[in-house]
Amino acid sequence: MIGSMEVIALEAAETSRVAFSTIAELASAICEGHLDNWSQRMLKQARICLEVTGREHIEQDEDYIVVSNYQSRWDIPVLYQALRIPMQMMETNEIARIPSVAMMGGKRILPVTIDGTLRILSGDALDARGTNPVSVTISAPIDPASYGPQRIHHVIGIVQHAIEQHLPAASELTVLRA
Length: 178
What we know:
Elements: H1 4-45, E1 48-53, E2 64-68, H2 75-83, H3 98-105, E3 108-115, H4 117-122, E4 132-138, H5 152-164
Parallel strand pairs: 1-4, 2-3
Antiparallel strand pairs: 3-4
Helix pairs in contact: 1-2
């Protein structure tokens, strides 16, 4: 039979578990709200006219590892507005680990192509409407687990191709390396 002290200890442990996870979820939701507001303001101040294709590839209840090309500092607020999903960022030197992390975590890789943010920095991007056009193309998710751990280089090539195919021929792409 469980004594009253043990019941109290179990209740305290369960209450703490629920409280801490609730606080973490609340903090995450607050951060996402701030990031959404910040990215909206950034796009408005830069007069970015965002065109997004491929949103149908995103399932809102699924977590992805998002991989995109890099053009400028405007990419992050553009990604927040284009994808409309909670995101955490990785440092560039961690990019090579993405296929392995995705495989271990059971996450699919979401390839995203950004085009137009580099022109904003040059100052000649304004179109006839006085806006800076930026396009974001979301490709179909790639499941690295279906290729197996020994084919990581193949997965990197598939992700890279999914991104490159939507870039103008003269654009540069930061290459993922395993």
